[in-house]
Design brief:
Length: 297
Amino acid sequence: MKTTVVCGLLGSGKTTFIKRHFLSNELKTVVLVNDFGSVGIDGEIISNTGTETVELPSGCVCCTLKFDLITTIEKILKELKPERLVIEPSGVASVSGILEALEILKFNDITVVGIIDASEFLEFYGSGMYGSFFEDQIINSGILLINKIDFSNSADVAKIAATVACINPAAIVYKTVNTLMDSALPEAKLKAVRKPESSFHFGFDTTALSLKHGMPFDEIENLFCGLANGTYGNIVRAKALIHTNRGAYRFDLSYGKTDIVPFEGGFTRGRLVLIGEKINRISLTKALGMPALHQTG
Ligand SMILES: Nc1nc2c(ncn2[C@@H]2O[C@H](COP(=O)(O)OP(=O)(O)OP(=O)(O)O)[C@@H](O)[C@H]2O)c(=O)[nH]1
Ligand SMILES: [Mg+2]
């Protein structure tokens, strides 16, 4: 069985990549998603395209979830018998932690695709605010996409490419918009798992709220403005699937930038998931006029 691990920081484009590259594949594919919220949204987005999707509940795969990851994969192999397994870890997970779990399972046909958000990388990498996250990602990625270059300029993209080449000269690098590559995915099998010099763990807080049908579109749009400008805490990422009074929409906020797109296909219940620091749940639930569905942290 072929295994592809698609890793990258929150909102870099992992789900976009999976939707674009694996869903019309001739191989029987199962996607394992480990989203950051307790009621993940990515699983629903991918399964909506008709692909078998399994969700691994939120958490840090490098720590407590390693055992869960192994048992979930064993179950997938037994029950679904895929020819290809695609894993999307959460945007705060350690890819080497996941690869160690795959080593325990004795997987030997693994490709790691690392997605980098070109609009944020230089600031985040330069400031060191994400510890060894990027080193962990880049040293283990056979293929690297410098994505969201439409939000960046060519000088910065060149700087990112040079930085990445210094950390992992062997990686095959693409510069992309919406993870669109100008060629088919090349062969780049992982030879050995590499651990960064130091480990990392993020102390982010997550919240999930359920949203009722028919909520006014404008209210949700305003809410996302508030989420982007700090009204509800330092929100680094927010995702929602909502049945608004104008139809079903996906709202997607990543480091201050919001995407709002109509959502084709059904989903069970409207919901909003957030990750960040000092999330102000009281004002958030008040703004929505809704009780909290689930809260962590
Ligand atoms: N402008 C622009 N937007 C992009 C690009 N790639 C992805 N996006 C958008 O960025 C948002 C986040 O993309 P996702 O694919 O959900 O990112 P992700 O890495 O799966 O996010 P998490 O799983 O939450 O960590 C979505 O609204 C995408 O449509 C790009 O190259 N340019
Ligand atoms: Mg995703």
